[in-house]
Amino acid sequence: MTDPFLTELLDLALEAARRAGALLRDGRPADLGVTATKSSPIDVVTEMDIGAEKLITGFLSDRRPADGFLGEEGASSEGTSGIRWVIDPLDGTVNYLYGLPTWAVSIAAERDGERVVGVVEAPMRRETFHAVLGSGAHLNGEALRCRPTAPLDQALVSTGFNYVTEVRAHQAEVAQRLIPRLRDIRRGGSAAVDLCDVAAGRLDGYFERGLHPWDLAAGDLIAREAGALTGGRPGLRPDRDLTVAATPGVFEPLQALLEELGAWHD
């Protein structure tokens, strides 16, 4: 990577994610409980989500005060520099609450609306994923490539479930009809980690309905820079209706099957 400006953004994102990851890993109280809920009683926020977002936004604001923010726990500002940071301070909060290791800090930088830097820090896995637009994806400094193409019926695919009961019920119906068409399905609990696992060749594909920009901003860039294809419904970009990421040979048949099964609606 030769663009010094993007190098600066990447270095800031890496350091902010490292600091937030250390706070979450080392500062988790033994009696951690739910601070608030969002879309439903099982869509939880902990004091650590809030603390991590404050750490990230404070660190980045000190160094780039003109930048904007979009964060899961409420950070929102337009900025004047053309750079916006899209932050999920703790992706996989329920995993974190229960002491499961699959959670991550996700930070992306957008320049004039285009994602140019993505970092996903997974402290319990001792893994740092990053990507810069046009410069490839990396895990702990080593270049990443997604898996070679597999037939859809030999594809290992991950998904996630919404916290709203009615939406979850339909998602379960889609998964039930999808399982016989695949090698198998996994449910990791962190969209950011799932997208990075597609990039790392640990999954052939991933799909989910209901993601927010902060859930997918960094992971989507990392997956694409590792050679995966990403999108939403056919012809659309990933969005709240549907996010799909997969190896090139799996992407189109998986996307078409999800469209046929109505994975994007109740």
Automatic annotation (TrEMBL):
GO molecular function, one term: hydrolase activity
Cofactor(s) in the UniProt record: Mg(2+)
Pfam families noted in UniProt: Inositol_P
EC number(s) given by UniProt: 3.1.3.25
Keywords, ordered alphabetically: Hydrolase, Magnesium, Metal-binding
Catalytic reaction list: a myo-inositol phosphate + H2O = myo-inositol + phosphate
CDD domains the record matches: IMPase (cd01639)
Root EC class: hydrolase
Similarity-based family: Belongs to the inositol monophosphatase superfamily.
Protein name: Inositol-1-monophosphatase
